[in-house]
Specification:
Layout: H1 2-17, H2 34-40, E1 45-53, E2 59-66, E3 84-93, E4 101-102, E5 105-109, E6 116-120, E7 127-132, E8 135-139, E9 153-163, E10 171-180, H3 196-199, H4 217-220, H5 239-248, H6 253-256, E11 262-264, E12 270-272, H7 306-312
Antiparallel strand pairs: 1-2, 2-8, 3-4, 3-9, 5-6, 7-8, 9-10, 11-12
Helix pairs in contact: 5-7
Amino acid sequence: IILTAGLLLLGCVALMSGPNAKFTTGDKAFYADEKTVNFVRPGLVVRVLSAEIAADGTAKARVRFTDPRGLPLDRLGVTTPGNIGASFVLAVIPKGQTTYVSYTTRVQTSPITNVAATQAGADSGGTWRQVADGEYEYTFRTKAPSGYDRSATHTVHVYSNRNLNEFELGINRADTVFHFVPDASATPVARDIVTTATCNKCHDKLAAHGTGGRSSMEGCITCHSPQTTDPDTGNTVDMTTMIHKIHTGADLPSVKAGGEYKIIGNAQSLHDFSHVLFPPSPKNCESCHEQTSTAAQKDAWLKPSRRACGSCHDDVNFATGENHA
């Protein structure tokens, strides 16, 4: 027994001090054979090199896929291990506003309420053109609407995954955003209130929607805006409202009064947040709105709105003042 334990300990030391040390215990590659890891080079990095929208609304983005050491990856998985799937969101922050409106949308009809909702989502039916090793140009099928504001801040969100299941290394995910002003008349000013690094203090690693690769706050907010609602429950999935309500969960006045806070997502997946408790206390705003973070708009929480305050205080009538302390 002592010998076995010693060998296990030595094995762990060797693994943690070897080439797999860059992976965490949450990565399949951490437990993989060293030769497999060296051959496959698991991991995925995606970068948007440029983006443009033509006068007729045709949008294009140039992206680069590499492994973590910078080796260009073949999107189709022919010359390098693992095929890569990628989805693109194109959104704008209209002048005078602070949240995104996505050009790429879909219509979701609830089988429960028969209500149809237009939701922000990824483009579908676009075309690819390989430019160089690991570099591709993606042309959106969705066009920017006629008369769109070419001087407003636009954002391309790319979320992607690299399928290494045949090597027993799972699905490797990555996403990124790219901000630009189509007519180049100004510097882009994106929404940047809470960083992914802050979220990952607890949600390590932040991820949603299965294996798609959506794992950054900067990308999530391009869809999770006031534009999008859940037609099954009628709840908005706007990030400001949704995140405050999720983290307040069991303390929501509506829940304490006997209600529920639920969102029904993709494929009718039910997410019930009615029992969520936030350990640091929802009253400690700086748990998420860190003043030491790199977020450009980290002070936004000091300018309260009905949308933000009413997400937790969901029994307050802002017109009459009913239930206001």
